[in-house]
Every structure is written in structure tokens, then in C-alpha cells.
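job 3f2a | input accepted
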Amino acid sequence: MKINLQSLKFTAKNHLKTFVEEKVSKLDRFHEKIIAAEVTLTLEDEKLVDNKTCDIKLLVPGNDVLAKRSAPSFEEAILTCVETLQNNLKRQKEKSGHSDMSATMG
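job 3f2a | predicted structure (106 res):
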């Protein structure tokens, strides 16, 4: 899977880029047809506590999967985004598995 990282209103340091690569690449385990991940990290208004936003769009044939989360740190926002995407991919896989079974049984 190709991972495209964009950082808005700041420059991402290497450790943050590596963190994104590590965590997002693990999503491959949950869906074999992910083409790419578009990750956008945004530094929001400093007055907000949760001013670090992570937006991840997984490009999957037929149905892209999206998640957006804000947190006090980019790492936390990335982790919650990845966790949400894992759950969505699992649910999607279960649905497609059940629909395949009902089609063969019916």
C-alpha cells in the first residue's frame, strides 16, 4: 500500500512520518485490496485542547474508507484514526462475508 502524507500548517518531523508509516501500513492486514492511504495531519487553532487532527482516507476499490480524529497529540490522533479504520474494515469484511454466504445458501 502506498502512503501519501500531507502536513498542513506545520512541517512533519521524521519521527512523525515514521510513526504514520508504521501504524497505517498495518491496515493492510484487515483488507487485502487497499491501494493507498491518504493521510493529512493538520495543526488546528492553538486555543483548542485537541488541536492536532489526523484525517485518513483508504483508497479501496468500490468503497473508500475514511476516518478523522482530533487529539492533544498527533500520535494519539493517528492511533485513534487507525483503530477506527480497523474496526470499519473488519465490519465491512464481515458484511461481505455474510452476504456471500447468504447468496450461496439461498
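job 3f2a | The longest strand covers residues 36-43.
job 3f2a | closed
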